[in-house]
Amino acid sequence: MSDARAIIAAVSAAVGEEGPTLLEGELAVELGHLHRLYRIVWFIDDGAEPVLRLVAPKGGALPELDWASIDAETMDDEGGLLVAWDETGGQWETLRRLEDAGTLLARGGLENETAIALMTASIGDDDEPDDPARQLYGGTVRDGRWHIGHVFPKIGRPDLERALALSAAVDEADELELASVEEAERVVARAESELAFGGDQLTFEREGSVVRPRWDGEPTRMAMGLVATSAFRAVFEDGPWDLSGLEEEDEAMDAAMQQLQQGIQTLATAFQQKAPGAGREVHRGERGRYLAGSLVALPHVTADDVVASDAEMAAQGLAPIGDLICEAAGNAVVRGYVGDAVAGYGVIMATTEGLYATELYTALDDRTSVTTSTNPGAADIDPSAGKRGCFLVARPELELEELLEAHRKAVKGKTGKPAAAPPTLEGLATAIDEFLTRFTSGGVV
Asked: pLDDT confidence of 387, banded at 50, 70, 90?
């Protein structure tokens, strides 16, 4: 909970002696929609970390809620209760956590006049008092709704309502209705610039003042979230939120994407030089080709790393079946493992950016799957993917034995039973392709 104190201190320093701004008339938000306030911060900085502070009404008490069930930690705080989470590094994971928190609060029977404050800041930015991620939304509960009465930075009610409408559209719609044709054109132009990493998969259909984001031709919550971010930044580029530093971040992202493309090319060359049989087609699926590769072709992976991973896997009864690269994720190489310890596959995944993580994957006979990973970024998944049967959890703090136990527990909690998993590299490639196909399938949620 040390980060919680740091976030509160950062927000307090930004707010200063003047205190937060009082809204002209309270703005009521359903408790179950608490995450929509956080998404406003996320539109600016998707790495911002949240803290909730709850205070019981005079003469009342806070209900006993199972915060551990949503991976939250709590701490008493001068008559109130702080709720916070460990930092994940996952772009979408924090949004899901706030959504879970809202659901828990909505079902928790909070007494009227219970005070709730949402505070956010970017961890590690203590020396930047003007950091736009430092925000505060506070108010009281009445009849199951959170009546927001004070905010920081200084925001007028119309702007906050407009921002909340963009946030709500991500949850409820498959298109964005902008104020004018000109505004829609600006949003599309900005999205095309900021979201170039989506390649041909992410497209934007515009009809008048309406923008329809599509991923592989289908509406998804991920596509809506990404394009709504560009819309927020276009609509509010002149305030009241300070977006002045985003241009530098966009330039840094462009440079990172260029570096990634160079890394993929370097990786392909390294395969041919270091791996006997590298480049051999193992499987051709819906998402592209799957080729034999080698972990040690990556600059940051040594033979000793692979030997150590093999030994760790062997201690749990898992044996290697080979290394694989898929065209749909050209910056990653995976080394597969099979054995009785997991109903499916164990994987070491390494990328050109320096990642080296362990994942466990089980496909179920009802066309769903469970993935448990030590990669913090594994939480960076389309929030609607669970509704397409892609259940994924990031547990970067666990060692392999604990990860296996957590994975088996997660599999046991699902309705489906483990499906057959051929103990071959082709079997692993087929499983990855089936997952990617399901993950990128359409549907508005």
From this structure: low
Strands 369-373 and 390-394: parallel
Amino acid 380: pLDDT: 52
Is 179 in the same domain as 230? yes
Upstream peptide bond of 153 is cis (omega within 30 degrees of 0): yes
Q: What is the pLDDT of residue 251?
A: 61
* Angstrom distance (rounded) from CA 432 to CA 427: 9
394-398, long-range: CB < 8 A, 24+ apart: 394/88, 394/90, 394/93, 396/88, 396/357, 397/86, 398/374
Q: What is the 3-state secondary structure (H, E, C) of 261-309?
A: HHHHHHHHHHHHHHCCCCCCEEEEECCEEEEECCHHHCCCCCHHHHHHH
Q: Supply the CATH number for residue 230's domain.
A: 3.30.1360.20
Q: Within this chain, do residues 44 and 158 fall inside the same structural domain, yes or no?
A: yes
With 80 as the cut, is the pLDDT of residue 13 above it? yes
Going by the DSSP 8-state scheme, the letter that residue 78 receives in this structure is T
Model confidence pTM above 0.70: no
**Is 256 domain-assigned?**
no
Question: What digits encode the pLDDT tens for the residues 54-76?
Answer: 999 999 999 999 999 988 999 99
Cβ of 327: how many Cβ atoms within 10 Å?
13
Q: How confident is the model at residue 249 (pLDDT cuts 50, 70, 90)?
A: low
Report the domain count for the chain.
3
Residue 439 C-alpha from the chain's centroid: 14
Q: 3-state class of 201 per DSSP?
A: coil
* 227 and 363 co-located in one domain: no
Contact 50, 163 (CB under 8 A): no
Residue with tokens 């990642």: 355
Helix (H, G, I), strand (E, B) or coil at 328: helix
Start-to-end CA distance of the chain, whole Å, equals 33
